[in-house]
């Protein structure tokens, strides 16, 4: 007697109770999140960057300076004095531990469990709202008080620098891709590429008067005439 293959084939695994058959506990359904350690030390972003580098293994102050300049230098200013000052402060707080002196009396620093907890607490808080301080935008905002030739010359120089950065970033991205670099590093580099490209396009699309085609005095006079015309039209509309 033959057997129906449809009946002999193993069925799907038991899906369990119907999700819609009863109330669902929101706490049980929500993905588990890592609670912030209330005992973890608070660190600033500069110290957190050093703790992040130390996750890859012990490093001397010189190593950390080199890593900071190469990896985060284009978007995060970090001086040598800051590196050593933060290392000293974190060593006193037990976040890093200095090892024996090596070549040229350089001492490697290793990450402690307290340092890992401090970094995790910093990451849990997130970066927060970015603070924008762009001298170029400040310069353009006050452009009507700046001589037209100087404004045009400055914008041309800024465009040249941004275009140069874009070329360097694109070349670096190709090199990193060839060596299968860290995807997080590539993502950061892509952000820099986007910003440089957007800045070049923004300068190219500025109106002639901003690019220096109109003297600041003429801009002010033109704005005044425009405002007076608008007021006159509004007055006529009110009387009608």
Q: How many domain units? A: 2
Side by side, the strands of the main sheet go 1-2
What is the ordering of alpha helices and beta strands? HHHHHEEHHHHHH
Q: Helical element count?
A: 11
The count of DSSP E runs of length 2 or more, i.e. the number of strands, is: 2
Question: What's the alpha carbon Rg, rounded to whole Å?
Answer: 30 Å
Measured as a percent range, the helix fraction is: 55-70%
List segments where confidence is low: pLDDT < 50 over at least 5 consecutive residues: 1-34, 214-224, 234-240
The CA-CA distance between the termini, in Å, is 99 Å
Q: How would the global form be characterised?
A: elongated
Largest sheet: 2 strands, antiparallel
Strand content: under 5%
Derived structural class: mainly alpha
Describe this structure in words.
The chain is an all-alpha fold. It folds into two domains: 45-125, Winged helix-like DNA-binding domain superfamily/Winged helix DNA-binding domain (Arc Repressor Mutant, subunit A, Orthogonal Bundle); 135-226. Helices cover 60% and strands 2% of the residues. The protein is built from eleven helices and two strands. It has helices at 5-8, 26-29, 45-54, 61-72, 80-92, 113-125, 135-141, 148-178, 183-204, 209-213, 216-239, and strands spanning 96-98, 109-111. Strands 1-2 form a two-stranded antiparallel ribbon. The chain is elongated and about 60 Å long. The model is unreliable at 1-34, 214-224 and 234-240 (pLDDT under 50).
């Amino acid at each position: 007697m033959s057997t129906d293959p449809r009946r002999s084939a193993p069925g799907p695994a038991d899906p369990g109770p119907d999700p819609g058959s009863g109330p669902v506990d929101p706490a049980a359904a929500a993905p588990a999140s890592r609670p912030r350690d209330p005992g973890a030390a608070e660190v600033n972003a500069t110290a957190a960057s050093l703790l992040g580098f130390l996750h890859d293994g012990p490093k001397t102050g010189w190593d950390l300076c080199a890593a900071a300049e190469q990896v985060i230098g284009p978007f995060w200013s970090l001086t040598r004095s800051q590196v050593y000052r933060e290392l000293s402060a974190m060593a006193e707080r037990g976040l890093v531990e200095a090892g024996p002196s090596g070549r040229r009396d350089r001492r490697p620093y290793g990450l402690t469990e307290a340092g890992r907890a401090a970094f995790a607490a910093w990451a849990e808080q997130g970066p927060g709202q970015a603070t924008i301080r762009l001298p170029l935008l400040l310069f353009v905002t006050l452009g009507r008080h700046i001589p037209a030739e100087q404004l045009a010359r400055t914008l041309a120089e800024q465009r040249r620098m941004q275009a140069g950065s874009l070329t360097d970033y694109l070349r670096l991205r190709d090199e990193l891709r060839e060596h299968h670099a860290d995807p997080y590093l590539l993502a950061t580099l892509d952000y820099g590429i986007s910003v440089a490209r957007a800045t070049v396009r923004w300068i190219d699309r500025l109106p002639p008067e901003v690019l220096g085609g109109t003297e600041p005095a003429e801009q002010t006079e033109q704005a005044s005439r425009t405002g007076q015309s608008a007021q006159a039209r509004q007055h006529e509309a009110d009387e009608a």
